[in-house]
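Q: Structure tokens for this one, please.
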Amino acid sequence: MKRIFLLTGFGVLLFLAFLFARAPAGLLLVALPELDEVHVHAPAGTVWNGRFRHVQAGPLRLESVEWSLRKAPLLMGRADIDFRARINQGRVEGQVRAHPNGEVRIRQAIGQQIPLASLAPLFNQPPGMVSGDGAFEIRDARIKGTEPVSADAELRVFNLGVNMMGNHQLGNFAAQLQGSDGEFTLSFRDVGENAPFSVSGDAEFSLPQRRYSINGRIRARDDAPENLASMLPYLGQADEQGAHPLRLSGRIQ
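A: Here is the predicted structure, written as tokens:
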């Protein structure tokens, strides 16, 4: 009798898995939490392997969002998802793990050739304010609800240009992001010898306290634009190496 119950239960699970595998991707719109600034358009495919034509998350637009769901982890109560998307000509891909408690863990993700102009609205800046490309590698990150909890990532900016008192090319930059329990440190610096300014420092972000602070230094090199270099003394007195302090703090909205 016990064997019959086991076989029956196994058959029911297989039947439910078959139905779930055939379920249209649009079913996810019912299961996903409603967020005011997130809009999903044109679902296609199935829950296992599907795509959205685009996803609008506030000012950020993701195109051709595709995913595939791994089946085995579902038996352990979690969802492991491989995803791919485009931001203009750039691409983003990685692996996400969703837990029943609402926590999302990005196990690995990379982004390449992402136009900085497409990210400018995230910082309340017009697209024409910046140019260049961005890239990132997330080695591990955890998100609870809509707030990041921890992160280990590397960020890169290539051929950064700014439209401020003229169009200026500022070179390449790199940053390391580390943090846990909502407390993050972003260590940044210029890369290569072509940057007109030498820049380095740390940015601290405290999500529980909704505060941020930047503590760094900036020095003009010989080929720095004169109209920008002339503004550096307003930041504070230069040290023995000719570097001015770069300090800023405020509240996170």
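A few notes: Helices lie at 2-22, 28-31, 116-119, 226-229. Residues 1-16 have pLDDT under 50 and may be disordered.
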